[in-house]
Amino acid sequence: MKKILKNILDWLELKVSYADLRLVQTEKENIEVENGILSSYNVSTDRGVGIRVLANGAWGFAASNNLNKVSLRETAAKALDIARASALTKKEDIRLAHEDKHIDTYITPITKNPFQISPSKKIDLLVRATKIMLKDKVKKGEGSFSFYKTHKIFISTEGSEIEQTIFESGGGITAYAIGEGDFQKRSYPSSFGGDYATRGYEFIEEMNLLENAERVAEEANQLLAAPPAPEGITDIVLGGSQLALQVHESCGHPVELDRVLGKEISFAGGSFLSLDKLNNFTYGSPEVTIVADATVPGGLGTFGYDDEGVPASKSYLVNKGKFVGYLMSREDAFKLGLPSNGAGRAENWNRIPLVRMTNINLLPGNLELDRLIGDIKEGLYLDYNKSWSIDDKRINFQFGTEIAREIKNGKLGKIYKNAVYQGITPEFWKSCDGISSEKYWNVWGVANCGKGQPEQVMRVAHGTSPARFRKVKVGASK
Amino acid sequence: MKDINSGKELVNKIRSFLKNYDFEIIVSGGKSELTRFAESYIHQNVAETDLNLIVKVINEDRIGAVQMNSIDDQTISKNIEKAIEVTKITPKLDYHYRLLKPQSYKIKSKYSEQTANFTPLNRAQLVSQLIKEVNKKEYEAAGAFKTEESTILVANSEGVFAFDQGTKVDFNCVITRDNSTAHTSFMDSDINNFKVNKITDELLETALKNVEQIEIDPGVYTVILSPEAVAEILNYTGYTAFNGKMIMEGKSFICNNQDKKIFPETITVSDDPFDELTMPIPFDLVGYPREKIDLIKDGIIEDGVYDHLTALKYNRKCTGNTLSPEYASFGALPFNLVMKEGDNSVEEIISSTKKGIYISRFHYVNILNPMSVQLTGMTRNGTFLIEDGKLGRAIKNMRFNTSVVDMLKAVDMISKERQTKAGFIGATVAPYLRTNNFTFSSKTSF
Question: What's the pTM?
């Protein structure tokens, strides 16, 4: 197959200023269980080639699932036609930040290949976990696993040849306690499908689903009987799972340089982190340091190379509260005179690389969790996302969480349901006065980040440990 | 799969591989092309051709599904073997799985040769025309322009055979100059209905009014929602309240309100593939013919929509809303949401409003409380004060936390005019409406 791809690239070489071809083959297994009954078992195989060309100073991209030589040649010709059409409105020629030629391979290090674990073993684990949760008012216990093996070949007219095999595993369980006119849910290890990582089946085993199922169900039952969260301005501690989504929405997206440049303005929106703010804006308190790091072992945003052939790297986005960097593709990095930091990612063969998050990590502080909570006289501990929304410049946000716990005189107290908190991004991060230590730090996989038209769903991650924020507006959904 | 005959050949091929098993198949494919522009130039421009085959093998109430995008004999055979193996090891369903019997279909998707043959150059020329016009007023344009030709085939071992081809034009655009913005969207099957001059004029008219935005305080307001905003509210309501599976599980607002008159008599919402403005989906993904399903009729809560599995499990009637096996656990969604028109012109709605707010569009809507259908989100690209019957000063964007139930209870005017907007599955047809109960909870800085 690589030979056919090279033939196509050779054919394109004289007609373009740049071209790359990506062959992507994905194997996926998805298992869903409800109340001990298998509700869905799907396996899929998917493959195709995407051809991206820079011709006449403009982009063209065409993709096909038909991998024979004639069809791929037609696809390449289509990409050229599209580039010519794009050139009709061009203001200047597209240029790319320099990237060295790379000839390399990368394979996700895993201990247990999830595709070699029998389906019945995986199903049985979910059957048992979901049955355990069916206690009292918990009328629905659901669990799911997803496994991906993605093989990618990237070749470009700059001479790069990169082959990668990425494994991803993930899943989780959720208990639904259902009462008259109300229901409450609790998830583990994280909400909306659980936790994900570029790891093997060992990641699933380490979740200890069976050991946690009963507690999760008990909390769902407690939530059903709990009062709504109080309204007002108070100090909060965000647990790691919720904080991951807070980082995602209020830092990960606004540092995407394509948003800043207006390329997403009609759909996903723009960003308040305009170019004049780079190295010149206080994003948060000195406690807050956020990095993009695609090299973290096991992170869902970990890889060898992005989909433009740029090696995985670590770069600072916010350093001790100061805004210092964007996520960049090669095209957008060129506009700032910078090299790409390896954030050009495509969901599949039929999508172009866009600026996407990798692992966007809030670095840990040095506090014990007891101390973080202990310094709060009155407040709330909030965790596990239930609802999220943020404006199109990523300033005004509101999140709902599955569970809230009262903090009184430095101790955790009763449970509240339907908690929400609102804020303005830089004010919120400036109110952060404590982050717990590495002992509590975890890289949370977020498997459903949407962006672009046609839409691309990307799997990304966020390293977080619980953190404290002062004087935050809280309330309850009604 | 070029045509109905190649579809039949494919079904026969799968039948030959699965002689001793019941099966359902879904084949979907086609070509989709999208031209995206921002900062007044085309920055992304893509095309794809693909074909997906899903084979669901049913073996004594055990189901295994496989999906592939290559349909050579070897790939199909290998995947089908995998599906058969799965049915041998998976536990049985807790209900009896029955296959649908052959059906007849009353409608087809809309199809336009011109849309199917629209080229990247054709799209670029229209985008270029729009850009030139808005640039004259010093605005920049950003958006996406998609043309698509799609084919779908649903069949099973009982003889169900449903084949359909359709086309779609999906366009959206935002123009900006400093803080002045406007948005529009267009959805149709026929590219000949896309009038770039009209769209450009409407964008500029809104944007030129949307300047020097003032701040207002959060609170409960009378608002007039555009069809774009109404469609978004309907889409989320359909998703969270009218999914039959959630109703059966006691997780929907509908559970305790069925057959009750909750809303004014003017409120009628249905899943209606026969509405003249919608883009009909003729059958669901097990081959049920689509019907008109009343969700809210004359203010009375009727019922939700049901997929094949939920209907079998709870002994209900499937309403023709089955999703792909990949989303089977979710339940069902309305495919063609339609809100009935009212008696008022848009001008009458505005001129009879002493004090209110006009909302062009929402951003990042999400569900806060499914049982009260409380939604949150932001306004975007044009929010205006209405004072003494006139559209007045533009206002900065606001966050709303509002219950759709409370909002619909307080609707007192609905427009005759309706527009076709994007739904979660197909299209959503929505009018303008005025409600006297809409809660803004906070504001933002632009």
Answer: 0.96
